Amino acid sequence: MSTIYTGPVFEMAKNQFNSVADYLGIAEGHRDRLLYPKRAITISCPIHMDSGETVVFQGYRVQHHLTLGPTKGGTRFAPNVDIGEVSALAIWMSWKCALAGLPYGGAKGGVTVDTHSLSKRELESLSRRYMQEMIPFVGPHIDVMAPDMGTNEQVMAWFMDTYSMYQGRTVNEIVTGKPVSSGGTEGRREATGLGVAHLVARAMERLQMKPREATAIIQGFGNVGSYAALELAQQGVKIIGVSDHTACYFDRKGFDVDALVAYASRHGSLKGFSSEALFDPNQLLVQPCDILIPAAVERVIDADVATRLNCRILAEAANGPTTPEADAVLEHRRNEIFVIPDILCNSGGVIVSYFEWVQDLQQLFWKREEVITRLKGLLDDAFHRVMARVERDEVAHRVAAMAIGVDKVAQAKATRGLFP
């Protein structure tokens, strides 16, 4: 069929889905309804720049399905955002929410922009204009936004305020990932990284690995990578390699993670942290370690990299870091490398976003300890269900995780039928 959904990231999501659909025995005639998004919105966002000129930025929002409840997903401000990438991320979010047991379909949004080129006033103008253009298509029971690459708590506060001004009342529940002072929840900022570390700990238990004897490499040192590093270091794991888009460091003796996080927070990146430990970023992923955490962007592990991986646990903190070709390699290395697939590994963020949405709807808020306890409970439940399916059917971890999510959505669509 002819479609607007193209590009390498979308093709990757499509190939993964078809592999799982083959495993589940989903008929060809029922696949397109499960795969293709319900709604895709493309908008123009004109804003006044500080220079006095008017610049138009392209924005997107894709809502994959509303079968289980409203859609849910982040909003990405990045130079390479396009409709194919956004659609793939929305599809992955659907399987992630279903796997975690959340009453959501997947969504994703974004604006094609380099935020480093914007002043704070320009960023606020772009954020508000994006939400203004989306108001006819979103709502607390239709589509709930969250932060992603290039956005943060402040951007979510601007989104929420803009939507609220048009409604004539405060609507906290239109976005998640807000500041606690504006209806956010305690524990949301660190949820994804903490969840990654928690699942790594569960994998180490299964493999009978001792955290204090383990080493880790983390590609990507933003919100997710930095909190994962902090939590793993607290467990006793030695962090021997880190990188972001500005710098890459590797040292077998390990790094002071608190110092790394403090430096990145103060300077906005890792650039300049060390001259002695500088390392080739193209070689970081294949260095010997016990735990490898890609926490940056999609498609960084291809077949060649997968062949050369030298880790025991691959914890996919990023969305879609491993290509289908790499999965074929990892299938042959299943006894060597324990994969925690992305839709499980990084699901802590959307789980706590769900908690935030529930608290906003009820206007009844929980303490951090309750948030984290509930988070770990849902992560453990999803992890054990994935491993039970792996052992029952002898399939790859990604196939098992996606199968649980796809099967839940497929059953819900079959039960509800097709209207009209």
UniProtKB/TrEMBL annotation:
The active site is at 108 (proton donor). Residues 185-417 form the Glutamate/phenylalanine/leucine/valine/L-tryptophan dehydrogenase C-terminal domain. NAD(+) binds at residues 192, 223. Substrate binds at residues 72, 96, 353. GO terms for molecular function: glutamate dehydrogenase (NAD+) activity; nucleotide binding. It comes from the Bacteria. Pfam families: ELFV_dehydrog, ELFV_dehydrog_N. GO terms for biological process: L-glutamate catabolic process. The record marks 148 as: Important for catalysis. Keywords: NAD, Nucleotide-binding, Oxidoreductase. CDD domains: NAD_bind_1_Glu_DH. Belongs to the Glu/Leu/Phe/Val dehydrogenases family. This is Glutamate dehydrogenase. It comes from Rhizobium setariae.
